[in-house]
Design brief:
alpha+beta; Thiol Ester Dehydrase, Chain A; 3 helices; 6 strands; 39% strand; globular
């Protein structure tokens, strides 16, 4: 498979370009770092900081969802259907299996279905230090095409 390209610029999509595109948006604010993109998978991580925690002192569910959803969304753009120029999320689901208060969390997002109209992505978020699962995540993306 050819390296994924940005539909707007035609440039290759790399971990550096993913970090850059999100730098001034939510992914950058939260500190997401992309560590790999290939073979219809996206890998990312973030260092757990106090602003990622809920008032009870544990990892906030929204932090986990932001990491998983961003990895899946960037994957949907990078590994989009032929002719698609973008996507929009139409459904997400997450099962939480654990938590952490410190360290880092990491995600592997994998395309489970790649149709012309929709894609389904699965993601597993783990405690980076222990490898223990934090959450299982699934989302459905609708492919967007230029209007004629």
């Amino acid at each position: 498979m050819d390296a994924p390209t940005n539909p707007r610029t035609g440039q290759p999509i790399t971990t550096e370009s993913l970090d850059e595109v999100g730098r001034e948006a939510l992914p950058g604010y939260l500190g997401l770092e992309f560590t790999g993109i290939a073979n219809e998978q996206v890998h990312a991580r973030l260092d757990v900081k106090p602003h990622h925690l809920a008032p009870n002192g544990y990892l906030h569910a929204a932090t986990v969802i932001a990491l998983a959803d961003t990895a899946c969304g960037y994957g949907a753009l990078a590994f989009r259907a032929e002719g698609a120029t973008g996507f929009t999320t139409i459904e997400i689901k997450s099962n939480f299996l654990g938590t952490t208060r410190e360290g880092a969390i990491a995600v592997t997002a994998t395309k489970a279905h790649g149709g012309r109209t929709t894609q389904v992505w699965d993601a597993e978020v783990v405690d980076e230090g222990t490898g223990k699962p934090i959450a299982l995540f699934r989302c459905t993306q609708m492919m967007l095409y230029p209007r004629e």
